[in-house]
Design goal:
It is a single chain. By secondary structure, the protein is α/β, with parallel strands linked by helices. It is built from 13 helices and 12 strands. The strands form 3 sheets. Strands 3-2-1-4-8-6-9 form a 7-stranded mixed beta sheet, sandwiched between helices. Helix 6 crosses helix 11, helix 6 crosses helix 12 and helix 10 crosses helix 12.
Length: about 325
């Protein structure tokens, strides 16, 4: 996609005292022109942009020649050996950031100036900020996955692909465990256990590009495995398929219809919170039953992988732990 009006309107504003840390590891360049434009725009909006690039040497060199003029482009610190490569990138970026206020973002996240301004202000009084992502554009699989976002919003807040963090808090905790799958939850839990102040404004909307369809399909079981970090939710998801089976076996059509209707209503509640109707089209609520069925099935597959392989396949290995239990983190910082 080319430059948007929000990008163009903010081009002349003074750069914020923020460091933007973007970890990535690409096997191909995807859409380098769009991404390069975004990086160059970012470099005019914030004081420092650090891309920590774990791509192979050929792609790294190509990226360096394309980006190094306007941003800091480096490889991950070779001393870091976390199983979750993203944490190697985030840790490298945070160690070298020159600003106290830092934005961490996946490579598919696209901030505008208004969101950068808001997160900068919030980081004045908070140690961690948890924005709300929305997909744009919205192909069918992104609408499907948006149902997860809406259900999370109905009961609290979603898990985004970007966070705001104060560097002092990162240094105080000594970093966070990178040998887990659900790295953003690990960071949030670590900050909370260390006494950090966190905020999750539901109306701080940050655009996210949807994945390609094969990538979306490949994420289903891995994302279900994340729920091992939230055992109450995992137990709920594991009951869905057996309950549906009982309903079908007993021909309880009315009960099934009521359950489907409730899931749509709950998703719609999340869609309507904090002005969400502007960012989440009405059809996304209708995907709630489909997403719940998917999560129920994939949760059983995730349990099977835990029992048969000791964890879920991630990158070039197997990761056992989704995240560190809250109690264990509290004991560490207590």
């Amino acid at each position: 996609m080319g430059p948007g009006p929000l990008f163009a309107a903010s081009a002349a504003l003074r750069p914020l005292d923020l460091t933007y840390v973007l970890p990535l590891k690409w096997s191909d360049d995807g859409n380098p022109d769009e991404f390069t434009f975004y990086l160059r725009w970012l470099s005019t909006q914030v004081d420092e942009v650090i891309v920590v690039d774990g791509s192979d040497s050929g792609l790294f060199d190509s990226h360096h020649s394309r980006w190094a003029g306007s941003i800091t482009h480096v490889g991950p610190d070779p001393s870091l050996r976390f199983r979750n490569g993203k944490v190697n990138g985030v840790t490298t970026g945070l160690r070298t950031a020159r600003n106290e206020r830092v934005v961490i973002a996946d490579d598919d996240v696209r901030y505008d100036r208004a969101a950068l301004d808001r997160i900068s202000v919030l980081l004045t009084d908070h140690d961690l900020v948890r924005p709300q992502n929305f997909f744009d554009p919205l192909p069918w699989h992104a609408a499907w996955d948006t149902a997860r976002t809406l259900l999370n919003r109905a009961f609290g807040a979603d898990f985004p692909g970007t966070l705001g963090l104060r560097k002092e808090m990162f240094e105080r905790t000594g970093g966070y465990d990178g040998d887990v799958l659900f790295e953003n939850l690990e960071l949030m839990r670590t900050v909370a256990a260390a006494g950090g102040r966190a905020v999750a404004p539901l109306d701080l909307y940050v655009r996210r590009l949807p994945p390609e369809t094969p990538h979306f399909v490949g994420q289903r079981v891995r994302q279900a495995y994340d729920e091992f970090a939230l055992p109450g939710r995992l137990a709920l998801w594991l009951t869905l398929v057996p309950l549906l089976g009982v309903a079908i076996a007993t021909k309880a059509a009315r009960a099934t219809s009521v359950g489907l209707g409730i899931s749509v209503a709950v998703a719609e509640l999340g869609r309507r919170r904090a002005g969400g109707t502007r960012y989440f089209p009405a059809r996304t609520s209708l995907f709630a039953p489909v997403w719940l069925l998917e999560r129920g099935i994939c949760s059983w597959v995730a349990v099977g992988q835990r029992l048969s392989r000791g964890g879920v396949v991630y990158a070039d290995g197997v990761v056992e732990r989704a995240a560190t239990p809250v109690k264990e983190l509290r004991e560490r910082f207590g």
